[in-house]
Every structure is written in structure tokens, then in C-alpha cells.
Protein: Glutathione S-transferase 1-like
Amino acid sequence: MGIAGSKTLSTTLHNCTLWKADRSPACRSVMMALDAMNLSLTEVDVDIDKDEHNLPEIVAMNPFRTLPILKDRELILRDSHAISTYLASRYDESDKILPQDPAGRSLVDQLLHYDSGILQPRYYVSVYPILYENCRYVMPQPIEDIEKSYQDLETMLTGHLWLSGSWLTLGDITVAATISTSNVLVPVDKQRFPLLSNWLYRMSEQAFFVTANKKGLSEFTNRIDTGKISGLNEFKKCPRSSLTRRSTGGTLSET
Ligand SMILES: N[C@@H](CCC(=O)N[C@@H](CS)C(=O)NCC(=O)O)C(=O)O
Structure:
């Protein structure tokens, strides 16, 4: 399963483990990148709602207490953007989703910095009061800020199918994880942001979006709509492979 759903064989990264939570957009961006590159590794679910990201073994790897975390032999990375670019530059041979030429690469980096510096902080300001402070609504200022991002992205998409230009890259994948999640809180208005809305639809049709984003997104939506944690019995802190996740269409099942 590649970007266009091709049936090339998956490469298993035997030394790599990813600690992640499906409802987290940062984690889903890495999972989508893995699926787009046909890479598999061991995935371990960490339940943020049960505070598992504060367990000593997780904090030892990431004192910032955030997910995702990647371990490749002795290397530990604790930022989704660094993780995805590391995996792509080390293990992806296609040179497609992370171009090797400096100009193409800089366009992707630009989007990743935009996600990390602008989109993610605006998303967290909007969602944390709902997730952790019993707030039921997104406040007016965060709505305004998120809509400013939608306007930025609408401008970036003028004359382009993809945020990175003529083909889909890690930049699109990363932004799609954040925006598809922000969209649950502050819906992308089709009339005001037609290019962004169409781009999000195109992204949602990609095979990797179905296998790696859809389930976590509906878990997140359910959490926001009801305040409840869906499918509690599905949260298991046991390893499974990326391949298993993909073969079940993004749903969790035992290996
Ligand atoms: N810039 C970091 C952000 C990571 C981050 O903040 N992750 C969130 C989940 S999306 C988290 O772990 N939050 C902890 C919490 O909700 O308590 C990245 O992209 O990896």
C-alpha cells in the first residue's frame, strides 16, 4: 500500500518501535507517513487518557511527556516531524514524499515548520480546554486563529493540487493530520475555503489516510462529541506491527 494504493511489498524495520496514541494528530502523521512509504515497525499504544504517557519508562525516553516517540536502536526521537523525516531519509528509497534535492526538500521542511510552529499550537490551544478542563466549546479567539490558518492554506493551494506543489509529500501528510483533526473542532467551510476543502477530500481518499488516520480521527471525534473514551477495551499497551494495523483497515486487532 503506497500513496496510490500500489501493492508493493512492505519493508519491516526490525529495530524500530513507535509509541503512539491514535487520537493524537502528531502520531497519526507518522503512521500515515509509514503507510505511504510502505514501511512497517512495531507500534505500541500509549493511552493518554489513562496517563500512560507519564509512566516512568515513557518519561525516560521523552521527558516532554508527549507522543509520538520513535526508537531506532539507540536513537530516540520525540517529535513527529523529526521522526517522519528521519524515517523517510533513512529508509524510503522512492525520493517522492521527501525529495532529496535541496529545493524540493526545503519546500517540505517549510510546511513541517509551519505545522509545528503555527498549526499545532493553534490546535492545542483550541482542544486542551475541551480534553482536560471540561470545557464544551472552542473559544472565539482559537476559532479565529484556526480560521486564519485555513486562509493561509487556501492561499498556499492557489494554483496547486498539493501544498507542496505538483505532488503529494510529507508536508501534505503532516498538515493533513493536524487539519483533519482541527476540522472536527472548527469545520473547514467549503464556501470560504474551497481549495482547502477539496485538498482535504483528496487527502481523505489516499490509502494511507484510510489505514492510518481514519480510525484515530473518529476516536477523537467521539471523545470531543461525548467526552467519552471510545472502545476502551481496544486500548492495549501491547506491541503490534504497522502491517497488522494496515491489514485491518486501520482498526486495532491483536497480532
Ligand atoms: N510537536 C510535537 C507535539 C507532540 C504532542 O504535543 N503530542 C500530544 C498529542 S497530539 C501529546 O502527547 N499530548 C500529551 C497530552 O495530551 O497530555 C510533535 O509533533 O510530535
